[in-house]
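Cross-posting from the modeling subforum.

Setting up a comparison between two proteins and wanted a second pair of eyes on the formatting. Protein 1 (sequence, then structure tokens):
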Amino acid sequence: MSKKPLLTIAIPTYNRSSCLARLLDSIIQQENYCHDELEVIVCDNASTDETARIAKSG
């Protein structure tokens, strides 16, 4: 059984790839960032820019 995340961040976005990249970088740069306790869900609403690629690589 996998451990449930302590915190889930849901990000709705549409064609805002540059903002999403900065936001994901900001989350990762947090002093207390612990990847196994955090879940990030990005809903890109069928964006036509690089949003999906950034969300997958972020």
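Protein 2 (same layout):
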Amino acid sequence: MPAAFTIDVTPHTLRFIKPAGTSRGIMTTHKVWYICLTSTSIPYRQGWGECAPLPNLSVDDRPDYDALLRSFCQRFEKEKCIDWDALRPYPSIYVGFETAWSNYEGSGKIYQETPFSKGMSGIPINGLVWMGSYESMAQQVDNLLSRGFTCVKLKIGSLRFEDEWSLVRSIRKRFPASQVQLRVDANGAYTPTQAGEYLQRLAELDIHSIEQPIKAGQWSDMAALAASSPLPIALDEELIGIHDPQIRALLLDTIKPAFLVLKPSLHGGFEGCQAWIRLAEERQIGWWVTSALESNVGLSAIAHWCATLGNSLHQGLGTGSLYENNTETDLFIKGERLFVKPSDQEQTIPAQTGFLLNGHRYDWDSLQAAYPSDTCPKCQEMDALMAFLADWFQSSPTLNIYTSGTTGAPSRLIVQKSRMIYSARQTLRRFNLKPGDDCLLCLPLEFIAAKMMVVRALVGGLNLWIKQADGHPFKATNQSFRFVPLVPLQLFNSLQDPSERAALERCETILIGGAPLSPELEQAIQALNTPVIVSYGMAETLSHIALRRANGPEASNWYSPLPGIHVSLNPEGCLKVEAPMLCQRPVQTHDVAEIDATGRFRILGRLDNLINTGGKKILAETLESLLASYIRQPFAVTSQPDAKLSHRVVLVTEGPFDRSVLSTFNPAWMKPKAYVVVNSLPRTISGKLDRNALHQLVNVSGTL
């Protein structure tokens, strides 16, 4: 019976850290498409692939690429199979589906195990020198040689030939061919008239080979060059768009190249490259594999495939370090070899084993039969869980979730279940959670944090314990938990009661989300032995995308993004989050932030909470952190219109406040100019300070 699956498509624009000079001009961005196959019948089976056409080069680079890709996805979903013949004219789409399908069929593995996939051996790779000025190319060469590369490939054809020849000669003077192998790639930059002389001169420098000296499509001229040139010729662009086996054979028999440079995204996917390899080896033509500016999804697939081929030549692979907003990777370079960090296989739960809930194993049918019963008593939390699971186990690929309502009424989002599964696996890996680990769910299931905890338990085989979603999650419990997500109020309450604090200490990891930690609470948890991890995220990113340790020797107020997450600032200084595996498009927040050189960030406050007083601006959160050392009771700051200052700072406290404690507070312009006393600060249903309600309260009730 055909396999039923859904296919999700996500376009993503990669940004080069430095402009990349190519024969087709300077590239600053590269648009790719990720596809995710998710089974509708086998729990949590999915596979990711990448479609990465190169502008003005790929045979399938076309204006309607997005529509074409989506039409294939819709057709394959309907037919419950992939029509490989239909994809063959579109190599970048073909290889995307090859990767996704192999990953899907292998339950997370792309290809069979090899010493490379186990982290036992690396793939020899060449260093790459991009087109640029003489000085920049020379610097690139020096950098690569200092890192231990013995094979260097130079992109040539953008400068005067004499300048490029001088650069290659300077390298060869320092390093003979016995020490450093030099390859050059002309990308078709020479005319047939020029090429003969240029290749003769390059051959004087003991060059290993030259890729595509003249433009593709000039078979007779290329054949003449290959026959007469002392410099071995490698074909690259010449192979693009040739899918017919007979024409492939005719091409090789006509030109008789020394080498083929195989790029799956350009040359027919992995299947197409395998066909080229068979033809090449029948004719004693050498070959190696090169990536074509894919992101880490495609790079990883190409590297794992390449490792199965047993080719001892230096390959044109890397780690995707060209891009500032790449996806996560397990690839790394040591010396001149590409390695992969071996990781445990993704934990999935076979359909027949079901899931663990409160120490009992169920599948969806048996849980419906058991609830309510003595072993699974009725309660509000279980009602909510059953409602969520009913949605989760429906065949629909999407789910409705709601934002927290921090800046207004909660809004509905439609999200792909495949992305929730990806997010869950990220958390399972980050915290090394294993099947059977006891985890506590004590959060309201209307929020994404609780929904994602359920998905983590389903995907990772965790033993999920359901507790009342109130302010005392550790009340009357003797259990120990491996992982517990809490909101700050629950953490605060648990610290006040000795028995609850003892239960807190028995947990291995506490994950805090939903609201910021107050300075007082952050100080209080320093005495805890249990690691407290503060998360940053939102419904749009399907829970956390960055974490920071809040206690212990590794405590920091800087968040570290999870792998594959990129953050930047907009012109107003607000954080922008790119998480292509989690959300279809970048998320622009209103959180004013700082980003350090390593990519970590810290939140200063929300742009909505900026107070302009007397022509000077201060974030409410920043002012609250400065006031925290003076004020011991719960408080917050907001503003009121003021004829002189435009807005004046208002301090709101729970209960009476002695203003004299602020007599030494500086600078004076930040000092509150008005005061309001309330019984309790207004909060949202998720426990966050409701600043909209606070502002309204102050501007309606007046001040002291």
